[in-house]
Amino acid sequence: xxxxxxxxxxxxxxxxxxxxxxxxxxxxxxxxxxxxxxxxxxxxxxxxxxxxxxxxxxxxxxxxxxxxxxxxxxxxxxxxxxxxxxxxxxxxxxxxxxxxxxxxxxxxxxxxxxxxxxxxxxxxxxxxxxxxxxxxxxxxxxxxxxxxxxxxxxxxxxxxxxxxxxxxxxxxxxxxxxxxxxxxxxxxxxxxxxxxxxxxxxxxxxxxxxxxxxxxxxxxxxxxxxxxxxxxx
Length: 233
Ligand SMILES: [Mn+2]
Description:
Elements (H helix, E strand, L loop, with lengths): L1 E6 L6 H13 L4 E4 L10 H9 L4 E2 L3 H4 L5 H4 L4 H11 L4 H9 L3 E6 L2 E6 L20 H8 L4 E4 L6 E4 L3 E4 L10 E10 L2 E10 L2 H9 L6 H9 L2
Parallel strand pairs: 1-2, 2-3, 5-6, 6-8
Antiparallel strand pairs: 1-9, 4-5, 7-8, 9-10
Bound molecules: manganese (II) ion.
């Protein structure tokens, strides 16, 4: 038997991250995989990154981590406000944090009791390229791509709304644990027992009051849009 906890898109919400990590340690979880976008939007990007770095969590790269890598191709679609926001984060990060981000894998794969699990921030394109692949969600091509992927279970984030596609394999977008508009957050538990897989969502409370107090005392680039769009404020 193996129990894996997964979650995604914390986006600088330190209180939600602390609540999830504390709850995971109170449960018997063998492994923790974080699906990317620990930074971006929320008021505590550096603190969230540091907490992940000193934890036992395995993390993959999200687009907000990729934005920090100075690769022009991934940055040129950002608006001027988004670039200022990215640079506000960049200015807080030290060399160790930057190296950690640069070394993150795009994908983690695991074979557990005969089941192949794929963990990534993004869903894939047909050619297994990763960036902005959620463009394909607008039409039926996602079903064709899902069919062509040789994995039994794929878990991804990026889209902040959770959804599931069952098509020659189970494809689960876990949703965002940081971009919430109330005092609850969640993580997903994968339990493998004798080759059978059970997926459950665990909803928990977090210190929303402190989160709101923190963000209301901040003034960083793009904050008004971010508060409304991502945190329901
Ligand atoms: Mn993302």
